Amino acid sequence: MTDVSAPHPTAAESGAAATQRFVTDKPASLAATPKERVDAIAREVLAAVHDTIRKHRVTYEEYNALKAWLIQVGQDGEWPLFCDVWLEHVVEEVAHADRKGSKGTIEGPYYAPSAPELGADATLPMRDGEKGTPLLFQGQVRALDGTPLRGVKCESVHADDDGYYSQFAPGIPQWNLRGTITAGADGRITIRTIQPAPYQIPTDGSCGKLIAAAGWHAWRPAHLHLMISADGYLPITTQLYFPGDPHNDDDVASAVKPELMLELTPAADGNGRQTSYDFVLDPA
Ligand code: MBD
Ligand code: FE
Predict the structure, then answer these.
(1) What is the whole-number distance in angstroms between the Cα of residue 24 and the centre of ligand 2?
(2) What domains, with CATH codes, occur in the chain?
(3) Residues near 126 by Cβ (< 8 Å), separated by ≥ 6?
(4) At how many degrees (to 10) do helices 60-75 and 79-86 cross?
(5) What whole-number distance in Å separates Cα of residue 63 and Cα of residue 13?
(6) Could you tell me if the CB of 110 is within 6 A of ligand 1?
(7) Whose CA is nearest to atom 8 of ligand 1?
């Protein structure tokens, strides 16, 4: 049965939007990496691929299928999705190995800067009658010694009840379920929103094709994205997850950590669920 209430995004549409976002927000700088380092990393990656080709006796037919697939990933704009689903988690692990504060995890391809400023007690922008279980989130941002931090900013974004992100799927208002929360001197934030649905990687694009060809699944468990910063502290990019999600233990993007699991209770006002989570930032 087809859902006529909202258009479904195509892989190429979300891919083009994610590629545009990346090119705008994160201009690359290969020049910043010394040539000795580029040489070592590129050589070792290529050697690992060569070893795999030998080990599995990859055929010309398979080699050409790979070339066609690589070309198609670019045409679909799915390199941001591919990289963030299958590579970013290890980059994040390496980058933040020495942090003593709260765990972060991957950013993924669907962040957009400059979400509306909503104050300390925020209701994320949403459509009239936005589908989904109401969710009340409360949190405090502190230093390693427990002191509440000043100048706390939290950017929050999540998928809707269909698993779609505004700006990366058609027919959703630009800032739907995206906001910037600014805490007062107590470092506390409140976010009123709806619970997101699990996210499925588009099945009609190149990443979906790889998943189908390999017999994998395309799911990420439901999650809230949060980016927390405070004056004089290292920012964290993280995601929080919901207990009981069928994909908490086999996230296609390998981004779940036990420390990132929420605890939910029925909301005090009887409307949906509530949860709290505190963040500890390392000094800059
Ligand atoms: C997402 O929603 C996401 O968070 C990541 C990391 C990759 C793909 C989709
Ligand atoms: Fe996400």
Answers:
(1) 19
(2) 7-284 (2.60.130.10)
(3) 176, 177, 193, 194
(4) 110
(5) 28
(6) yes
(7) 108
Of the pLDDT bands very low, low, confident and very high (cuts 50, 70, 90), residue 1 is very low
Q: Rounded to 5 degrees, what are φ and ψ at 216? A: -90, 180
Q: 61 CA distance to ligand 1 centroid (A)? A: 32
How many Å apart are CA 229 and CA 220, to the nearest integer? 25
CA-wise closest residue to 171 among 5, 283, 1: 5
Task: Tell me how far the alpha carbon of residue 111 lies from the centroid of ligand 2, in angstroms.
Answer: 8
The span from the CA of 16 to the CA of 63, in Å, is 26
Average pLDDT value over all residues in the chain: 96
Q: What is the structure's pLDDT at 5? A: 56
Instruction: Read off the pLDDT band of 6 (50, 70, 90).
Output: low
By the 10 Å C-beta count (0-12 exposed, 13-18 middle, 19+ buried), 83 is classed as middle
Residue 2 — very low, low, confident or very high, per pLDDT cuts 50/70/90? Answer: very low
Q: Where are the alpha helices (DSSP H) in 202-278?
A: 206-214
Confidence at residue 55, expressed as pLDDT on a 0 to 100 scale: 98
Task: Give the global pTM.
Answer: 0.95
pLDDT attached to residue 3? 47
pLDDT at 9: 84
Q: Give the whole-angstrom CA distance, residue 264 versus residue 238.
A: 18
* CA angle (11, 15, 16) in 5-degree steps: 120
Average pLDDT over residues 269-276: 96
CB atoms within 10 A of CB 72: 13
